[in-house]
Specification:
Blueprint lengths: L2 H6 L9 H22 L3 H23 L4 E2 L2 E2 H25 L4 H4 L6 H29 L9 H28 L4 H7 L2 H6 L11 H7 L3 H13 L10 H26 L1
Antiparallel strand pairs: 1-2
Length: about 270
């Protein structure tokens, strides 16, 4: 082969698959999200631990004052950790996805980055931090003498996945709507606050409620998720009111509707 032929010979460059590129984009976004949230604020990680610890301590102290050291057949601290941690995970996933549906235009200038990449990265960071907080609290309680044996780790993971899916779906739906109707932001924040806090089973189980009240509260899928997580974690806790098909269908419909709305309003915004 002559020198001229070798210079003009085609060169074959190995291209990364779409999946590999997507993983690299997500990895970069996750690192960026970690740095923006916690990079310059050491209290950031600590606050993720302090907030549920404060709520749990207040409720444990309150229940001890009225002579109730156990709740739902398990020690009160364990009961509250298995309720507050999943709820705060849901709340934080919702909050991050809701906020991520708007702004971030500088990242959207890169052709490889999509809105969904940004939202998924935010959710992954939130879930990882929340799970770490839960593990720290559970290990801390074990060291303090609260003995327990996790019954079904897979069931607990399914419950966590479902509660995150609901948070993601609600964030998509409400975030997409407020792209067009921004004045609804204050209304959605009110709805996502106290009503869900009071009806999601953080400091009670479904079996403790009067039948008529329970029938209303069970429309809240978060109550099903938290009951399911507690049932999976602790052998001494069981709930016959968990309806997983209802939660799964709710999450699927919510996320499908949210993706449709987000795509529609994103096209209008462009």
């Amino acid at each position: 082969m002559t020198q001229s032929q070798s210079n003009t010979a085609p060169s074959f460059v190995k291209r990364d698959s779409a999946f590999t590129v997507q993983c690299r984009v997500l990895h970069a976004l996750i690192l960026r999200e970690l740095k923006s949230r916690y990079g310059n604020r050491r209290l950031g990680f600590l606050w993720a631990l302090i907030e549920p610890l404060m709520f749990i301590s207040v409720f444990v102290a309150g229940f001890q004052l009225i002579g109730r050291s156990a709740q739902g057949g398990i020690a009160a601290p364990l009961f509250f950790v298995a309720g507050f941690c999943p709820f705060f995970m849901f709340r934080d996933v919702y909050s991050q996805v809701f906020g991520g549906t708007k702004g971030q235009q500088s990242l959207m200038m890169f052709p490889q980055v999509t809105r969904m990449d940004i939202l998924v990265a935010k959710m992954i960071v939130t879930v990882l931090v929340s799970i770490l907080v839960f593990i720290v609290l559970m290990v801390g309680l074990y060291c303090l003498g609260y003995d327990y044996e996790i019954e079904d780790i897979l069931g607990a993971m399914i419950g966590v996945f479902l509660i995150c899916a609901i948070g993601f779906g609600i964030g998509l739906v409400l975030g997409a709507i407020t792209i067009r109707y921004e004045f609804l932001s204050s209304i959605t924040s009110l709805f996502m606050g106290r009503p869900l806090f009071l009806t999601s089973g953080l400091f009670f189980s479904a079996s403790m409620l009067p039948p008529k009240v329970r029938d209303i509260f069970l429309y809240n899928p978060l109550l099903h998720c938290i009951e399911y997580i507690r049932s999976s974690l602790f052998l001494s806790f069981s709930s016959r009111y968990v309806d997983l098909p209802y939660v799964i269908v709710f999450a699927l419909v919510l996320n499908s509707f949210g993706l449709m709305l987000l795509g529609f309003f994103e096209r209008q915004r462009k």
